[in-house]
Each structure stands twice: as structure tokens, then as C-alpha cells.
Design a protein that fits this description.
CATH class of one domain: Mainly Alpha
Distance between the termini: 31 Å
Helix content: 40-55%
Largest sheet: 4 strands, mixed
Low-confidence stretches: 1-24
Strand order of the largest sheet: 2-3-5-4
Number of helices: 26
């Protein structure tokens, strides 16, 4: 009866015109209390109650595979970036001119068409000239410097067990079809996809200059090589365990692991000759994959390397390459109906290659620095809530508790933008040379990254751009980061009440803090070192609590397919912990303050609705199926319902009863 009365009061509030007037009309992205679907019961399906009307009025744009408030805000930020790149905002200093020259060259389709592939002819010729193993190794090094991860990945990374130092890392390669299942599963849908991929690779090789027969046999070689990779690569679930991704060895030991590969030649090719130690994330992949590579003909190796060259740079190629690339990766794999407008594609490339220079202007003109103080307040409130939770967790011993609280206190908070901007002084940008600019930008960034190896970790570096809609937690760096681009409606709105902000940005903050104590993050200590600081009994208790989430989410389904509760475990722990911490922080923040109805809703109801509205999403079926295989996040429906069913606080807020779908009689909980 209670929830019926609450719902009636809510509908009446809408009818009389939202007399509080706080539902914001100034920003179309702001939280709206009147968007709920009153034909749905919040206790039967909270996601449908909160998101049905949003989903009806926010169809997927033809150039997207899904649409949600994150993309909606990102589109707004993209428009700002576009104005910066077109010279309508910002200064006229040399760096700004470099940014705009890069964008203008990318927008010059006539010059791109006229130039063709001339900017990468030396690379194509190098591949075609392969006659020996050393030739192939040098060509692969050239590819890696252009942003490709053909055969394997090579990059600098914080040493997991020596958190103050950067170590060279050799990792598995990315697969052209994004997930190993597409290579190994034998059913009609997957077989059809493999055939379409084979056709796509054939067409791209033809466009790059190979004759029909050569392109077809080359594509077959690519599929053959990537299928072997798929067989050898560890599953995404196994890759979640950082201990299984750490195998530090000397270069001599690396050479013993793969004796047929001339590593000294490879390191010279990527301009990293002084390397002494490496972390090989998956020796069980690298050793047999290098051996398999050695069994291939040079013709097969050349086809694979050529494909990766054109694949890595396709976004900067002439339009026929772009359209063919979109056909497979947009239409076939993700269900996108229309190629994004050229300005957006060029803005994405400019962000990728000169993002800090754009971000500096974005922040100066569009970030309210006064809002930063309030966001930091919310962060500290949620950090305090987690401290209280750790202090009272009944399943945790005092030894582990002290270490957990020490780790929580060590977190650095980064909000808005970095303290130091990059200057891109060594990057050459030329008018009317879009592909050449992209090639030089990839090499410039790769060289910058390689220079980190063997040096101390720069803990001031950011790994997201200020103009991006992003927030992240790093267990290795022990930090929480939220960008200026994220701290806007609907995630943060300084003009709205605290419950709305705690439900939206507070939930996101709680989510990131919880990642530091999820199934992966809990394995790093207060300094960022991969170290077991848990007692055996506490680790066992953690696993028992976590298994509840594995079982629970493995029974949720979309499109007739059940979720992978192990792949999504870390995000599910963070989703559940994040909303609970934000709720506890909100309740403490409101102590002693007036608690009034706004738009006919209690503070608690506004909190849960603000959270749910940030998770509303429409997704193309192809993309959703792909994400079930590759995405560690649960689909939006279950990011909402999968959390509130575990919260007695939600049950109380909406007057739900035992037996309602949104009430779990045995709720899962870790934090």
C-alpha cells in the first residue's frame, strides 16, 4: 500500500506541473524526475520504471551502436571540441595552430584522395621486401611503432611488484574480430561472421595494392594466424587475475623462452635497445605463438603484416578504405547504420594524437573550477563511508582491516585536468598530409611511451583526456580520477540537490573506490604493489561473498543469453559497492539538514532515480551480443536492477514487499 500512495503522489506532482520547479529545464541532459514510466512498478522492474520513457525518446543515432547519457554528454563535448578545432574558440598560439592544422588536413578529402597511400609506401615496401626472419622482425617493430599490436603487444607499464618503476611489457595481441569466440565457435552465426571477416580482409588487401588472388590467399593467411592466436590466448576471465599476468624475466630468459626470435633486433627496431627486464604477461601464449610464426611462409607473414598496417591506419586512409572498414566493424559487427560525419572522425583522430592541447582549451573555456570543490567534498564523503564500512566488516580480521584502511587513506584524488600539459614540441604536422600526420603522431607517441621504460613511474600523469566523459580508479597508482568532461549534467549538477548528485556522480565515485577492493584491485597494496596482504581466512571469506555475485549475475539474461558472471565480477562488485557507499555517504551528509519532498519524491527516491537515469541505454543487438563476450560491464538493465535488488534501502525507499522482483531475500554484499 505504501508504494501505491507514493506512486500516486508522484503522478499528482507531475499533473500539477512540478511545483517545486527544481527539475531543471536549463540543460537537456539534467536529471528529470518526471521522466519515469508511471505504468511500471519500481518494485517489479526499476530499470523499466526509470528508463522506459528515456529509451523511447532517445533512439540510437544512425552512426552509433548504442546510446546512453555517457554518449549524450560526449556528443556535447564533441561539439565543443569541434569549435576549438575549427578555430572558433581558443587562442592563436603555435600549439593551437598545430592542432587546427592537423584537423584541417584530416578534413581535406581531396588531398587525402590525391595522396593515396604515399605516406606509408616505405612501410609497404619494407613488408614486401621481407626475405629473412630478421626482415620480418624489423617490419613488425615498425608496425608496433605505428600503434599496431600485431602478433603480440609491446608497451611500458608500471611494474606490478615494484610500483615505483616502469617495466617493458610483452602481452597478447588483439584479434581482428575482437574476441576469441568468433574464431573457435562452430555455429551458423559465427561461421557467417568469419566468412564476412575473410571478405573484409580480402577487400582491404586489394585496396592496399594486392591482386585479387593474392588478396584472397593473404586473407586466408590472416584468418589462419589469428585462429591460432585465439586458441592460445588466455580467456578474459583468466586475464582478470593480475598474478597470472606477471612473469618478470631478463632479456636472456626471454630469448630462452622463444629462441627462434631475435629479440635484440626487435628491440632495436622499436628503438628500445637498452632493455634488461620484461614482464611477459602470458608465456603460454608467446612461446608457442612465436614457434607457430616461424613455421609460416614469408608470403603468409607478409600478408598478415600488410593487413595490420592498413587495419591500424584505416581511419586516416582515403574514403574507400574508410567505408570498407566501417562496413565490417560498424555494420556487420556492431549494427551501426551510418558512418559518422567526417568532422567527428577527424575530431576523434585529433583527440587521439593531440588530446592534451585540445583539453587545455576545453578546460579554460568550459570547466567550472568552483564545482571542483563540491565534487572533492563528495569524494571525501564517500571515502569516509568506505572507511566506516571497512571498520565494521564482520567477516574481516583486524590484520587485513588495518591494511585495507591504510590503502584507502593512500588514495590520491585527481579532479578535472592534469597540473601539467604536454606541448607536442617534437610532433611535425603538415598541411594537406593527413595520413602522414597520423603516421608521425603514432610514432611520436610510441617513442614517448618507450622512453618511460626503466624510469620511475610518473604519478602525476593522466590516462584520460579532460574533454572525455570518464572516471577511473588505478589500483597500481592508488588514485581516483574524474575528468572535467564528466563533471556535468546528468552526472554532476551544482544546481540540483545533494541526493541527485550523490545518486549520479556519487555512485560513480563509489564505484571507482570499490574497484580498489574488488576481486582484482584487492590484490594491490597501499603503495600499488601486487602483494598478498590478506590473511588466508579473509581471502576465503572474500571469495565466498564474491561467489554470490557470480551466481546471481550468471542467472541474468539479455537476448536469450545469460551474462558471464565471472567476466563481469569486478564491475558487479563495484556497481553494488558503489551505490551502497554513495547512499551511506548521502545519509550522513544529510544529517541535521532539512529533509523535504522535491517533485513529490523523498531524498532517497531521488537518489535511486538519479542513479538509474545515468544507466539508461539503447543498444543494437549485434553490439549487445559482442559486449556479452568482451565487456566486463553488465548491460544497463542489470547494472540497475542487479544492484537495487541487493539493497534493503531501496526496498524501504519505494515501499517494496518481500516477493517483489526487486527484493532479493538473500542479498549479495561485499562492501
Amino acid at each position: 500500500m505504501k508504494r501505491v500512495l507514493l506512486l500516486a503522489a508522484f503522478i499528482a506532482t507531475i499533473v500539477i506541473g512540478l511545483t517545486s520547479g527544481q527539475t531543471s529545464q536549463r540543460n537537456p541532459l539534467a536529471f528529470r524526475a518526471d521522466i519515469v514510466d508511471a505504468t511500471q512498478s519500481p518494485c517489479a522492474d526499476f530499470y523499466r520504471y526509470a528508463c522506459n520513457n528515456w529509451m523511447k525518446t532517445h533512439p540510437i543515432p544512425p552512426d552509433r551502436s548504442s546510446w546512453d547519457p555517457y554518449y549524450e554528454l560526449a556528443q556535447k563535448n564533441d561539439e565543443i571540441v569541434r569549435r576549438i578545432l575549427e578555430g572558433k574558440e581558443g587562442d592563436r598560439n603555435p600549439l593551437d595552430r598545430k592542432v587546427r592544422d592537423y584537423y584541417a588536413a584530416c578534413m581535406d578529402e581531396d588531398a587525402i584522395q590525391k595522396n593515396g597511400l604515399s605516406a606509408i609506401m616505405p612501410e609497404l615496401n619494407r613488408i614486401e621486401a621481407i626475405r629473412t626472419t630478421v626482415d620480418a622482425v624489423r617490419a613488425l617493430g615498425m608496425l608496433h611503432a605505428l600503434g599496431s599490436d600485431a602478433l603480440f603487444s609491446f608497451y611500458p607499464n608500471q611494474d606490478p611488484k615494484n610500483a615505483e618503476q616502469v617495466i617493458a611489457t610483452i602481452d597478447v595481441a588483439s584479434l581482428g574480430m575482437t574476441d576469441r569466440t568468433y574464431y573457435l565457435k562452430d555455429d551458423k552465426t559465427t561461421n557467417d561472421l568469419r566468412q564476412k571477416y575473410l571478405e573484409h580482409v580480402t577487400h582491404m588487401l586489394e585496396l592496399s595494392g594486392l591482386r585479387d588472388l593474392e588478396a584472397g590467399t593473404g586473407a586466408a593467411a590472416v584468418l589462419k594466424i589469428e585462429t591460432e592466436m585465439a586458441k592460445l590466448e588466455p580467456s578474459r576471465e583468466l586475464r582478470r587475475d593480475p598474478n597470472k599476468q606477471y612473469h618478470r624475466m631478463t632479456v636472456a630468459e626471454l630469448q630462452d623462452l622463444s629462441p627462434s626470435w631475435p629479440w635484440s633486433e626487435y628491440f632495436r627496431a622499436v628503438k628500445a635497445p637498452g632493455i634488461r627486464n620484461v614482464n611477459v604477461t602470458s608465456p603460454e601464449y608467446l612461446k608457442p605463438m612465436i614457434a607457430f610464426w616461424g613455421s609460416l611462409s614469408f608470403k603468409e607473414q607478409k600478408a598478415y603484416l600488410r593487413w595490420h598496417l592498413v587495419h591500424a591506419l584505416a581511419a586516416a586512409f582515403p574514403e574507400n578504405f574508410v567505408k570498407e572498414n566501417f562496413h565490417f566493424y560498424g555494420e556487420v559487427l556492431r549494427g551501426i547504420h551510418q558512418l559518422s560525419p567526417r568532422w567527428r572522425r577527424c575530431a576523434n583522430l585529433a583527440n587521439a594524437h593531440l588530446g592534451d592541447a585540445i583539453g587545455r582549451i576545453f578546460v579554460a573555456l568550459h570547466f567550472d573550477s568552483a564545482a571542483k570543490h563540491r565534487v572533492v567534498e563528495i569524494i571525501r564523503a564517500i571515502q569516509a563511508a568506505l572507511h566506516d564500512d571497512l571498520s565494521t566488516a564482520t567477516w574481516m580480521s583486524e590484520t587485513t582491516r588495518r591494511a585495507a584502511i591504510e590503502k584507502l587513506a593512500a588514495y590520491r584524488i585527481k579532479v578535472g585536468y592534469p597540473d601539467t600539459w604536454r606541448d607536442y614540441a617534437g610532433l611535425i604536422v603538415r598541411p594537406n598530409d593527413a595520413l602522414g600526420n597520423a603516421v608521425r603522431a603514432y610514432r611520436y607517441e610510441f617513442a614517448r611511451q618507450i622512453q618511460k621504460i626503466g624510469k620511475p613511474v610518473d604519478r602525476d600523469e593522466w590516462f584520460s583526456l579532460p574533454q572525455e566523459v570518464d572516471g577511473y580508479q588505478s589500483s597500481a597508482l592508488v588514485e581516483i580520477v574524474f575528468t572535467a568532461g564528466f563533471l556535468q549534467p546528468p552526472f554532476f549538477d551544482p544546481d540540483l540537490d545533494d541526493p541527485v548528485n550523490f545518486g549520479a556522480v556519487g555512485r560513480a565515485i563509489g564505484h571507482e573506490f570499490t574497484h580498489g577492493f574488488d576481486d582484482r584491485g584487492r590484490k594491490f597494496d597501499s603503495h600499488g604493489n601486487l602483494r598478498d596482504w590478506w590473511t588466508k581466512d579473509d581471502a576465503q571469506a572474500f571469495q565466498e561473498h564474491a561467489s554470490c555475485f557470480v551466481d546471481e549475475y550468471s542467472n541474468f539474461a539479455v537476448l536469450g543469453n545469460k551474462l558471464n558472471g565471472r567476466l563481469t565480477l569486478g564491475e558487479n562488485i563495484a556497481d553494488n559497492g558503489g551505490i551502497r557507499l554513495a547512499y551511506l555517504a548521502m545519509e550522513k551528509y544529510l544529517e541535521g539538514k532539512p529533509r523535504k519532498l522535491i517533485d513529490g519524491l523523498t531524498p532517497e527516491q531521488r537518489f535511486f532515480l538519479a542513479f538509474a537515469e545515468t544507466q539508461c541505454v539503447n543498444t543494437a543487438d549485434q553490439t549487445l551480443r559482442n559486449r556479452l563476450l568482451t565487456d566486463p560491464h553488465s548491460p544497463g538493465q542489470w547494472r540497475v536492477n542487479g544492484t537495487v535488488i541487493n539493497m534493503p534501502e531501496f526496498k524501504a525507499a519505494f515501499g517494496c514487499s518481500n516477493g517483489d522482483a526487486m527484493v532479493n531475500q538473500k542479498p549479495c554484499r561485499l562492501w
